[in-house]
């Protein structure tokens, strides 16, 4: 079996269903990794695994997991997830969505994503980006040196300090490192613990304003392949903002419903965690 093209993906446009031809099946332990020409399934990304894989069925069989894989052009060995030896989108490689199933499949298959689970993950991801921008604004007064700004002009605390981001159904959990290197860049953590509730309130208020503004959200994609460099865009009242993103999103901020932002500081003060929760209707 030789795979000669990257998987085309339709989830960036919001698709949750499709029909496509099986182009390969690879063994994954005692399971099967089914690869099709085009899929609506969002796989877990191997380099920045923020958004969990979609769930659903392929050819009527449950998709037990959905992961990213890569195969070097002209070769047969398919590298899965953490075993991919090159950076996401590297030239000379085909980038694949692998649907893990209990049964091998062939021919044309229907692909059906669990739409409710997808909607909740999309809500969590849209909220995650907005909360990051709101947190940047709420922490803007704590920078004593100039650092790169986010799309709304605030010092980009999020991109400067983030160590992990986890999207959950209807929420997200972002962890930031407040170490020496951040202080050297000009961030002051003096009195942060005392001010934390106020900072969280400001971020939450901003997020609620943006939800009330019913701002449109869209994904710009330079191509249909899995690793095309896509960008999340939101036209907020303060201006249009773009963030590189490989995930899925809602199409308007109003769909997020109500929102809460919680900030937690680790006991030693070295780590800040932001928990965002929304409740789409
Ligand atoms: Zn994203």
From TrEMBL:
Gene Ontology MF terms in the entry: aminoacyl-tRNA deacylase activity; metal ion binding; nucleotide binding
Keyword flag Zinc: yes
Manganese among keywords: no
Keywords: Metal-binding, Zinc
Segments passing through the bilayer: none
InterPro entries from the UniProt entry: Alanyl-tRNA_Editing_Enzymes, Thr/Ala-tRNA-synth_IIc_edit
Protein name, UniProt field: Metal-dependent hydrolase
